[in-house]
Design brief:
Number of domains of chain B: 2
Strand content of chain B: 25-35%
Radius of gyration of chain A: 21 Å
Distance between the termini of chain B: 18 Å
Oligomer: heterodimer
Strand order of the largest sheet of chain A: 1-2
Number of strands of chain B: 11
CATH architecture of the largest domain in chain A: Up-down Bundle
Number of helices of chain B: 6
Strand content of chain A: under 5%
Structural class of chain A: mainly alpha
CATH class of the largest domain in chain B: Alpha Beta
Distance between the termini of chain A: 20 Å
Shape of chain B: elongated
Largest sheet of chain B: 6 strands, antiparallel
Helix content of chain A: 55-70%
Number of helices of chain A: 12
Order of helices and strands of chain B: HHHEEEHEEEHEEHEEE
Largest sheet of chain A: 2 strands, antiparallel
Strand order of the largest sheet of chain B: 3-2-1-6-5-4
Structural class of chain B: alpha+beta
CATH class of the largest domain in chain A: Mainly Alpha
Number of domains of chain A: 2
Radius of gyration of chain B: 21 Å
Chain lengths: 272, 283
Amino acid sequence: MNPDKTGVQRVVFTPVDTLARVDAVVRRLGDAIDLGLLTDGEQLPGESDLAAQLGVSTVTLREALMALRQRGLVTTRRGRGGGSFVTVPDGPAEDRLLARLADWSTEELRDLADHWAAVSGAAARLAARRTEPADLRQLQRSLAELVHAEDSGARSRVYGRFHVELAAAAQSARLTREEVTLQTEVGALLRLVLCDDRFLRDAADRHRAVISAVHDGAGDRARDLAEQCVQASMARLVELRLGPVGGVRGPRPKEAPDGQQPPSRERRVGTA
Amino acid sequence: MGSNPRPANAGSALLDDMSAADAAARVRDALEGVFDAVGATGADIESLLSAVLTEGRRPVSGDLAALRPGLHARLAGYDLVSGIGFVAAPGLLDDVPAWLEWWQKTADAAVQPLLLDLDPQRSAYSDYTHWDWFTLPRDTGQRAVAGPYVDYLCSDEYSLTLSAPVTVGGRFMGVAAADVYLRRFEAVVMPLLQRLPGPARLVNARGRVAASTDPRHLVGSLTKDHDLAAVLAGPAQGTDQDGLRLLPCDGVPLVLAAETPQVAPNRAWFTPGGRRGTRPPSP
């Protein structure tokens, strides 16, 4: 995601590069906390050790830790037994994810949507041609789990699995690998749109329509519908990214906090 | 790939000629070899689990480490096998809810364990009990061939998985299984299919093509409109349907579908110059 810079560039473009590295460190540690790889109360290595492990300067690491503290993901205690500790905030994960969404530009989100729609659309078209009842059983099982999943994390995991299964139903190992990779990028963000029950019902209906088109062997319809599944979710993410100022028209996800600020500003204050 | 244009000097007629029945038998032999590896793995597991149960305790995941020398030897000894191991029935082991003792060949011919996140709180892929390679042996009590399918759980490869139930005292303990990547399978069976007089393909019981010399029916596509279950349960010499000879690969659930030349017998394709036509009747 964040291109690794060479030593020469590091010297020439120090300020820009440092900022990019702060973002990279924040994203890396934020991901690790959201995925449960770093758990509540866990002590991070000392600053110089951690900086060396991540390959960044201690100045960069301190800026990243400051940004993480402002998001409530890290607390730092001084004195004996002190250090930096992972804190998973009590509030809903959606609040934190909203801050993470700010790491994405709308251009990056649009490009991700295009890539994902291309893969899922092609997968759906091929699956319609190559499907047999056993392929549909897995998709139907995922759809049923999607409808009944309680929290946005489970919904997002099953949503992602549906698209992986669609690519597998296309009998394409390459498209399947591509979907798996896409899900690692988009999985956490999808929680932000799937926490809304009404959106979840719409999404389930859209995915049900994909299954039915694949079942009918209607390749073009299956492709269009699968692309719409992706575009609807990603359009919702872009709306959230733009925030109230950018004009969120539909109802907000019910789990999202009231009076949310465009998180990008908070982050810029924290890292600038 | 493609239909099978053969060099004119492809050897003696004896070497060159292969009947569909011979090809089906050779395909069966190749997969029986893989089933040997599965069977040896299953026997190891059964004796290991029996010994543990005799001690009056439940098995734990660490007990399965004793399978490793055998698994590594079979990965090294069987060309077709790219992954092999034991998939425990959920609840079998005392220390973990689910477990795969699974080893794979790497690109540089080393072996490595498959490490999966089987925590349902973190992974949408933690439940493996719906895959064909698990349900077929569990539900039928018989060995099974699953696929071809994209194996996004273990290898991300287009694969066949051969599996057999493991039982101790009549109780289902899980499945012993081996993965065969389609590209490796193709390398073994294509030379056989290419020695048939016309285009041919191997299809599974559901009609999915597993290998083919016919560009119109490539791997992964479906061959519909034939009662393949009846062919698999039918006579060894197979049946003729719509210009296709459908032969069961005796004992493994694959059907060899070979186009039958409309001018029979094959000798009619010999030309006076000694070159033999290999083209099928035009489609």
